[in-house]
Amino acid sequence: MKIGVIGYGYWGPNVVRNLTSLEDSHVLLIADVCPHAQKRAQKAYPGIKVTPNSSDVILSSEIDAVAVITPVWTHYELAKAALENGKHVFVEKPFTSNTAQGEKLINLAQQKNLKIMVDHTFLFTGAVRKISQLLDEGAIGKVYYYDSTRVNLGLFQHDINVLWDLAPHDLSIMDYLIKAEPEAIVATGQNHLNGHEDVAYLTLYYPEKIIAHVNVNWLSPVKVRTTLIGGEKRMLVWNDLEADEKVKIYDKGVKITNQAGVYELLVNYRSGDMLAPHLEQGEALRQELSYFYNCISNGQEPFNDGCAGLRVVKILEAASESLKKRGSLVYL
Amino acid sequence: MKIGVIGYGYWGPNVVRNLTSLEDSHVLLIADVCPHAQKRAQKAYPGIKVTPNSSDVILSSEIDAVAVITPVWTHYELAKAALENGKHVFVEKPFTSNTAQGEKLINLAQQKNLKIMVDHTFLFTGAVRKISQLLDEGAIGKVYYYDSTRVNLGLFQHDINVLWDLAPHDLSIMDYLIKAEPEAIVATGQNHLNGHEDVAYLTLYYPEKIIAHVNVNWLSPVKVRTTLIGGEKRMLVWNDLEADEKVKIYDKGVKITNQAGVYELLVNYRSGDMLAPHLEQGEALRQELSYFYNCISNGQEPFNDGCAGLRVVKILEAASESLKKRGSLVYL
Amino acid sequence: MKIGVIGYGYWGPNVVRNLTSLEDSHVLLIADVCPHAQKRAQKAYPGIKVTPNSSDVILSSEIDAVAVITPVWTHYELAKAALENGKHVFVEKPFTSNTAQGEKLINLAQQKNLKIMVDHTFLFTGAVRKISQLLDEGAIGKVYYYDSTRVNLGLFQHDINVLWDLAPHDLSIMDYLIKAEPEAIVATGQNHLNGHEDVAYLTLYYPEKIIAHVNVNWLSPVKVRTTLIGGEKRMLVWNDLEADEKVKIYDKGVKITNQAGVYELLVNYRSGDMLAPHLEQGEALRQELSYFYNCISNGQEPFNDGCAGLRVVKILEAASESLKKRGSLVYL
Amino acid sequence: MKIGVIGYGYWGPNVVRNLTSLEDSHVLLIADVCPHAQKRAQKAYPGIKVTPNSSDVILSSEIDAVAVITPVWTHYELAKAALENGKHVFVEKPFTSNTAQGEKLINLAQQKNLKIMVDHTFLFTGAVRKISQLLDEGAIGKVYYYDSTRVNLGLFQHDINVLWDLAPHDLSIMDYLIKAEPEAIVATGQNHLNGHEDVAYLTLYYPEKIIAHVNVNWLSPVKVRTTLIGGEKRMLVWNDLEADEKVKIYDKGVKITNQAGVYELLVNYRSGDMLAPHLEQGEALRQELSYFYNCISNGQEPFNDGCAGLRVVKILEAASESLKKRGSLVYL
What we know:
By secondary structure, chain A is α/β, with parallel strands linked by helices. Chain A is about 35% helix and about 30% strand. Chain A has 9 helices and 15 strands. Chain A has helices at about 10-20, 35-45, 55-60, 75-85, 100-110, 125-135, 160-180, 285-300, 305-325; strands at about 1-5, 25-30, 50, 65-70, 90, 115-120, 145-155, 185-190, 200-205, 210-215, 220-230, 235-240, 245-255, 265-275, 330. Chain A has a 9-stranded mixed β-sheet. Chain A has a 6-stranded parallel β-sheet with strand order 3-2-1-4-5-6, with helices on both faces. The longest helix of chain A has 19 residues, at about 305-325. The first copy, chain A, starts with a strand and ends with a strand. Chains A and B meet through strand 7, strand 8, strand 9, strand 10 and strand 11 of A and strand 7, strand 8, strand 9, strand 10 and strand 11 of B.
């Protein structure tokens, strides 16, 4: 399997590092328009060819797959060209700038019998895998809410707002865990510095009274990566900044007895043990790229395919619409 | 100064304990309809008369002021009767069930030349006083956002939702700190158990691009009481659950230079020292009740008067309206 | 059961508060030499007689038991007088100033058929009970070490050093948990301010290679109450300052295989789940005082009796000897 | 400047990575006896020659300096050979297995006019530099104590105990900060698994009542890297595991007034702000290796020279003696 990487900015080096560490993988070419990035790539990987032209990657007859690790507004054109030239595509999140682009790429890949994988890295972490397992096993019970706080100081993206920058993580995780699509969403937020929202809040109404909320912020003095999930049987806290014990499962709950007349005793709280399960170690991106290889080798459709990427873009698009109106309810 | 207390449930005992510890204050009478509460009150304070009838307090000719520490739906009738009988009123938050009630009480107090104080206890904590001082001194600079998370397991109120239960804390603090009224609000949320929302999110748009957000939840496995305030010059985190170092001030910031052409260098982050200032100790409720006495003695209007209480109720009322529509923008 | 309390300084009020809350208990008399303490006691408990003379308590014919909540140098004389006058004794830790005193009190109580209970409050906390249960069940396996850090700013005692002030907590807990007496001890430390050590370190060698260590410090800027217990099967951390999750049990371990020649593979680490068990709630002192009553009623010897108190004093005495020589090994 | 590296186990890769990132430095040769390590080195650095023979490095005529990153029992022979062959030496801590070896190396280097630098990496961290600055400026005042806890699960060294493995960090830091040598030490500890102590405690008595204590443990379920420093004017906590705010300075103190007769008021506590100063970022090892180059270029004696390394070994040697006797006081 031979691969070319377009984009060697912030995330690209991680992709290349993991690709080169995988057995039977060969990074043949790295493309980046920025001379500084080219220099960094060349110094780190003397054995890999570096080019300023993405078309060198796209048109190469030796390359089987292309990793598109560039700003979101370039995804569509690069992925389209790669697919048209018979390459499988691994593309950075969010998948595309809008749903129309996403749909076109999915159709194109289908026609060409090629795979698209959207880089929803978090789905390959030990934490998300464990949470998924807990939900599937019924350990949490019916889900009540999903509440994520993802704030820090910077990084400002120049072409997108904080919602498009940070929320795709949560939206892809929710897509994976909740296994349902939201019915309606409300997004609020404010820009303070460069015209793009740097603070934003997103509420998603799912079927069966599941509510989700995402708090994203580029202007926070402290970094927070905390998600609370409340269920009928158990509740959990996932703090991704903890070195160990990232996921804590609380055997806690509330039961309301509709016992007429005995008003004071209606609410029963249950408070039991807390368990922080051992999580699989290993770099998520490495696992994801290994899975990308396997999917291509086996002709298997990845679960984080173009459709998964599209579902995230659909929500982002609706969120942008809601945000423009300072928070109107938008049905999906 | 002689005082009667109506309501000896969860918060009433704290009010009585602090009132009795103040010099020159005399709690003459405690009223509670619940026999169990009467028994608790009588055991704790053998020297104070306990009654099941709030009218005993309201009609007493010896009493100068009444503390109304009962569920919100009873505030209006009790406070009205107390004012009509010439008593100053200290009333639990939220002030009233709706704005109409609040306005009537304010007018009545004015006619009778009596004081109303709404129990916005947090305004008397060392943390809020310090934050207020920092804002007034300009240490934070222009405020960008106020973001509060106030979640825990229970306590379910039977007559109100989580927004009316927990958000008044934040709304009264914002009212005190931001010194402006919101222009519009959006509230989202969901009920899962008893018909009242147990998870809710509130966004408030203030003038000059200040945005505020409140995350309240009765179904969280962990207790969180954290507020982030971002400003042009500094940012702060107030974690009320910390034993010490509740307020941390970060000398951090972002500046965007509109320097055309040097795209990559536009954003400058500043990261300096963190300071956790020493905060005034002492129980907030005691300070507040002492201030109540002083206001009455000196004929001074408290800053947490009926108007302050009304501003909070006004937002809650608009939030309820927004919440009913699952999150429409409501102008105030 | 009628009781008299001698000493109403820092801890005495907690003893009285809990005694009065127990059913069928009557605090008849509080004695304290300090007029300020007398005033506080009288204000808090208008129904209880207060006296400056401990002999009023000791000689009272109505009183069944005496709680001695005074500085350690007074314990012997007060407890002796109480026992001689036919009273059961509840005495603050450490039991006595030296082992000779402790032995005399134990003998006296035995002759008079009276009970002594030493106030080792921590043994009645949910945390210590749970740890004890885990050790008894074999969940921890063979114990390797017990390591406690108990530091804070102040409180300086005027008559004793930091070892006699803070270490009795750990020594009584170890006595309860390890169920063995140390063979030898080493104590190091330093005084900086008033001639008494304000920083001290204690190592205890127990049979079967169990080692214990206690770090006590009156000059720490932060309060720490953390104990690590390492065992062959599991390890635990008890952080008494955590609101919840005070005890965390780690399914972690190390196994060394004596496989000659395969040097690098000798050490195997095991890293599994972490469990924070739900702990019994309730105030420890209340449980202890209730147990005191039961022991007297049933003629049962408490496990925290004079002998338990004496074992702690024996170690403190040896530690003082070691400390004087700046840390020589002292056999017990 | 051309350098050869002997030892490519756990720490060696970090040394090579930093050396190659420095300008004007050339790693010519990497030696390691282990084939697996050779393979790792060759894969990571295709441009650097790798050899199983340390003598290839030592005898190379092209090489100016040798980095000895091997187990401690090999340091003396390798460093001696390197010095005899005219190479400057950068050697992993602890410097040597005993003081005699250390003295011989120092003398040899002096005769040959070569530099020895002992890898006391922590001295180049932003945290230690800041603490050093605070002490030098007098911000802490007279030091009372230095108390370090450095515990985790593993890594077991096969040739040395936990004291020789972990305590050199603290001993080198104390040497740098306290600027005095201890007068006497006491070491206690216990082995549980392989004959080497896996739990150990070290008390150091310095002049002027400064006391230091080091708690090292290979069998802790949690990783702790916390140092408390108490001084007359301020106190600080250095938690090296914090992402930010590693060093917290507390404006806290205690003053004892020898005012006869007013016993209760003798102790005054002062509690003020806490400051977490911004620390210099950057990898400590890179700074240290850059300093190594500068020292050689300029003929400057590094502060972490052989003498600094020897002072640490001297304490370790005395600690071993004390430990053998289960904790006797050993004068230095």
